[in-house]
Description:
Elements: H1 5-100, H2 103-169, H3 171-179
Amino acid sequence: MNLTEEQHNEICQVVADFRHGMEIRNNLNLRVARRVTQILRAGMLGLGTLTVILVMMLIAFNTRLVAMSAVLETMNQKFSSMSESMGKMQVVIQAMDSNVAYLPVMVIETGKMQPAVRDLHGEIQAISGRVSHLQGNMTAITGNVEQMTQTFRGLDSTVQYMGADINKISGPSRMFNNIMPFLP
């Protein structure tokens, strides 16, 4: 096969273009490979970081597990005492319930007492009026007694004067009593 210069140039040109295309393709493959490598590295770095974080969380969880166990034990003890307290509260509430059962009866009886109390109130008002009237009478009596006391005081001095006068008047009669003591 004999090639002409022109064909030879064309073949050289095609081979040069093919080589240039292959270099471009090769460069593109290298760029894609670099980008994929960067993405894989970032993914692996993120996965490694996530793994480290998870391992640290497991370590922290394991160190806190003992404290959590102690807290759970304390809670268990407290729940036992709370259960006992709840039992006591239940007994008290049942006692309160049985005691409260009498409340409706008490309300009914109190309602029945209301008219009697109302009547009693009226009677107490009447008694209060009578006591007020009695107090007025007692005040009047006290005034009369005071007036009588003043009168008796006046009479007392008058009676004393009368006694002295009677003593003077009876002087002659006493003389006859001394002379005739045995006469009836």
